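Handout, section 4.2: multi-component inputs.
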Amino acid sequence: MSGRSALSGPALRMGGLVLALILLCVVGIATTGGRFASAGNITTILSLAAVTGVVSIGMTFVITAGGIDLSVGSVLGLATVWASTLSTQYMAEDYGWWVMVVTALAVGLAAGLINGALVAYGKVPAFMATLAMLAAAKGLAELIAGRQTQRVEVDPFLDVFRADLLGLPVIVWIFVVVAAAGWFLLNRTTFGRRTVAVGGNPEAARLAGIKIKRHTLYLYGLTGLTAGIGAVMMLARTTAGSSTTGTLLELDVIAAVVVGGTLLAGGRGTITGTVLGVLIFSTLTNVFILNNIDSSVQAIAKGAIIVGAVLLQQWFAAREKSTST
Amino acid sequence: MVDVDPPGAEQRAQQPLLQMRGIVKEFPGARALDGVDLEVRPGEVHCLLGQNGAGKSTLIKVLAGAHQPTAGEVLLDGEPVTIPDPVAALGLGIATIYQELDVVDGLTVAENIYLGHELARGGVTRRSDAARNTREILKRLGHPEISPHREVGSLPAAGKQIVSLARALSRDARVVVMDEPSAVLDSEEVENLHRIVRELTADGVAVIYISHRLEEIRQLGHRITVIKDGRTVATSLSVADTPTDELIKLMTGRAVEYSFPKRPGVPEDAAPVLEVSDLGLGDVFSDVSLTVRAGEIVGLAGLVGSGRSEILETIYGARRATSGTVRMGGKRLRPGVHAAVAAGMGLCPEERKSQGLLLDEPVYRNITLSSFARLAHGGWLDEGAERAAAREQVEALELRPASVDREARTLSGGNQQKALLARWLVHGCRVLLLDEPTRGVDVGARSEIYNLIRRLADDGAAVIVVSSEIPEVLGLADRVLVISDGRTVHDSPADDIDEHRVLDLVMEGSVS
Amino acid sequence: MTSSTAVRTRRVSGAFIAAACAALVVTGCVSNEPRDEETAAAGPVTTTENDEPGDEVVIGFSAPAADHGWMGAITAAAEAEAEKYEDVELRVAEGTNDVNVQISQIEGFITDEVDAIVLLPFDGAALTEVALEAMEAGIPVINVDREFTSPFAARTTVLGDNYGMGVSAGTYICEQLGDNPDAVVAEIAGIDALPLTTDRSNGFKDALEDCGLDVDARVAADFTVAGGEEATANLLSAEPEIDAIWNHDDDQGIGVLAAIENAGRDEFFLVGGAGSSDMMEEIQSGDSVVQATVIYPSTQAADGVKLARLIAQNKTIGDLASIGVPRTVQLFAPVVTADNVEEYLPIGFDS
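Output:
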C-alpha cells in the first residue's frame, strides 16, 4: 500500500460525502435561493436529521460489530407510547418531566438488551432476533396505546425539549451531544476498539481474549438506548406517543449508516460518515419539498443515492486492495 | 530412484492409464513440485506417500485442474492432455475427492451429485431421472439407504464422502483421486470405503489413494509412489514387497535442513508454569497430561486430525474441556479464553488470517488488542502508549517493514506471525501456545521465527509448539509428545526420539 | 359535488400498501374491543319502521387491522350498530392486513352460510374473487369503502367520497380566500401511493381551480403522527407565507399541529380531513389554526351493517320510491366548522 492510498481511503470517502452534501446545498440554493439558505430552513433540516441521527449513532456500533438491528423503529415507537401513557404522565406531573425521559430510555435499553441477549447468548441470528423484536415491540405498543394516539399533556416536558438553546432547538443539541459521545466511544475507548475487532474478525477477537458475548449484549443495549433517546425527541416533536411512530425508521437509519461508509459486513465504522449520511438524506428531502417535487421521485432519488454510495464503497475497497498488494 | 514391478501385476492391463512426467510447479518464491513422476494403471490402487509439505496436495490439484504445472506433461491413455480447469478434469474422467468434502450442505443428495451437470430439458431439471440414477449409483456404492432427496447437510462425514464418490461415478470417472479419505471415518465406515475402492478397481477404474496409515495401504494398495520435497523419490513400489522401514526411510530426511537454535537445557528445579492433567474433549482426545516449566518448549507431533490443535485450543479455553484440569502457577483456570489470557496465556492460532489478525487494522492495534488492561486507562485508549509498546516489539522482533501503522493485511506470513507473537509479548505472557508457527512462512524467515521462540523461552516463557512438520518439532522442542487419535502415544526428551520413530508412531499408531 | 367523477373505481393496490407497511409485520391479533359505545352509537338518530325487529340474521364482518384511529372507529361503529338490533348477530373476524387471511375469513363465512357479509377489503381487487364466490353462494355482500373490481361481487357498495372530500376542502378554502387570487394554498397528503390520496388531491385541485386558486405546495406524509410532523416541518420551511393548508388525514394531524406550533406559525388556517374528535375539539376551542375538517365517515361500515340487515330481511330503504336497497350508496363529505361542530362531535373518532 503506498502512502498516497493510505491517505486516500477514509479521507476520500469523507471527502465524497462532504462533496455530495455541498452539491445538494448548491442545488438547494440554486433552485430556491434564500428559502433554502434561511436560518429557519437550516434549523428544519437539522431538526429532521436529529432523531434519525441519534438512532443512527447507535446503529453504527452494531453494524461496525457485524450485526444489524431492525427493531430500532418499532422500539422507538414503543418507547414513545410507554412514556406517554396516562399513568406515566400522571407520575411525570407529580414528580417531574424526567419520569417520561427515564421511562423512554429504560424501555429502549431493555428492548436492546433483550435483542443482545438473544443474539449473544441465544445465538439467534441478529437479523431474526431483531426482526422478532420489531414485530413484538410494535404489537406491544399497539396493545398499550389501544391503537390510539396519546397526547403529551406534561407541559414542563414539552417546554424543556421543544425549547431553543443558543439559536438551535434542544433536540438538535441532543443529536450533537450523542454524536460527539459516539465518536469518542468508537475512536477513543477500548469499547470502540473491541467493537471494530468483533466486527472485523470475531474469531480473532475471541482468541485475543475479548468477551464477545458480553460485548454483543452491550452493543444492542446501546442501540436500544439511542432508540429511547430518539423516542424522547420524537415525543417532543410530535407532542404525542403512537405505535406508528418510528415505522420504517430502521431503513432510513441503516441507509444513512451504510451510505456514511460503515461496512455492512462489519469491521469498519465511522461516526462522522454516519452524521454526514443522515444530513445528506434530510437535506435531500428538504430540497425536494422546497421544489414541490413528487414524493415518488424523492423515493427514487433516495434509492439511487443508496446504490450509488454502496457501489462507490466497493470501488474504493477494490482500489485499496489492488494498491495494497 | 527405486523402480520395482509388482509381482502378480501381469493380470492387470500393462498399458498405463495415467502418466505424469517431470511435473514442476512453481509458486512465487517457492517450488512446490520439482519433478514428479507418477504412473497409474487401470484397475489398481496407487498409493501416494509423503510427509506434510512434500507436495502431495499440489500434485493432486494439478491433476484436478486447479493448478497449472510450470513444466512437465500429463498423459492419458498415452496421449498428452492439458487440464485447464476442474471441469476439464471431470470431462477427461479424472475425479478428485478432497479431504475437505466439497459438497453443498443445503442441497439434496441428488442435486449434489448432478451439480454442474444437471439433467435438464429446456432448463427444467428432470428430478425423477436424477433421483433414479442417484439411487442406482448409491446402491452400487453399498448405501441404498441414503435417499436421493435427503439434504446433504444432515449426513455424517462418511455419508458426505459417499456423495462425493457418487458424484465422481456419475461422471463416469476413470481415475479417482482420494485425499486421506479414511481420516474422518470410523473403522466400520473404513471397511465399507475399502470395499467400494475394491469394486471400483474391479471395474477398471484407477484409484490414486493418499493415506498416512500404513496398515491401510497394506490392505488396499497395489503400488506406492513416495514423494519428498516436491520430487518423486521412489515410484511403483510393490506394496507387498516393500518393508515399512524402507518406506519411512524414503519419506524422512530433508534436502533443506533448517538451523535450529541451541537448547540451553531446562534446569531440573525450574518451576512448572503450566500443568495439564487428564484433559479430554469428547471423543476428540482424552487423558492428555503435560507439564511445561519456565524456559521449556514442549512440542506436539501428530497427523492432521490427530487432535493436536484441539488440545491447544482446549488448554487455552477456546473449547470447553469435558474432563481434566488446566493449572497455571498452581492455580486452576476458570473456563473461557478471557480467564486464560488474564492469567498470562497466549495462543498464536493455526489460521493466522482467519483466527488471529484484524487484517484491515493497523499493526499496532493488532499488537495491543489483548493488553488494554495495561495500555488503556478506565476504558479510555492511550494511542501514544499503544504505539510505543507496539514499536518496541516491532523493533525487538525485527518485524518488517518496521511501521506500526500499516494494515496487517499487507505483511508477509512471517511478519504476520511476528505481529501475533508481539501481541503476547506486549501482554507479558508466561505461557505461549503456538499452532503451526511457520505455516505459510517462507524458508528464509523460518530460522528467524525459531530463534524468536527459543528466545522467548529463554526469557522464562513456557511454550507449547504444534506442528505437522516433524523435524520442526524435534529441532525446536525440549520435550516431544506424539499424539495419535487423540491419545499421547509417546512422551520423552527431544533427544531421545528421531524423525523415523515419530513417523513410525503416528503412522502405525493411528490404524483404525 | 356528487359528479360522476366521484364514483370512479378505486383500486387499492395491495403491492403498494404492502410496501408502505413493510415494517408493519404486525402481530395484528389484539382484539378490537368495542370502545366508547356513545361515540359510535350516538349521532343523528333516525328511526324508521325498518328498525322494527324482523327475521334473525347473521352478518359476517371483516375489515383490515385497526392500526389507525379511523380504521379502529370503523369496526367499533359497526359493532355498536349491530348491538342496536336484537335480530342481528354480527360475527366480527379479526382485523387483518393480510389479504390471504381476509380471503380465508370470507371463505369461512360462506361455509357458515351467514345471511350477509359486510366487507371492507384490505385490497379491493384481491378480495373480488372471494366476494364473487359468496354472491354465487347466495350470500349478499356489502362492499365498504374500497371497491371491488367486478360489479357482480357486491350487492351494494357503501363508499366514502374521497374526491368529494377534496372538493369540500377546496370549496371551503375558496369561500374563505375567494377574494384573493394570490393566496398561497398548501396540501399535506397521506400515503401518496394510495389511489384514495390521488382522488382527494384531484378533488382539491379541481375545486380550487373553480375559484382561481391552485395548490402552491404539496407534501405527502404517511398517516402517522411522526410522518405528519416531518412533512409539515419541511413544508413550513419551504413556504414562509401560507394562507391555507389542507391536511388529508386527522390521524397525522397531531403531528401537523406539533410542527406548526414548533415553527410558531399562525398566519394561515388549517382544514383537516376524516374528522377526528381531536380536530373537532380544536375547531370548537376557536383559538386554533384548525378552522374546519372534512368528514370521511367512520360510520360507513355501520351503514353497511344496517343495509346488510335490510337486504337479508328483504326490506327496502326508507324514503325511496324504488323497491330494494340501492346498488351504491356514496356518503356525503361535509365540512365541520365552528358553526356545526356540536352536531358532528359525537361521530368524531379518537385518533
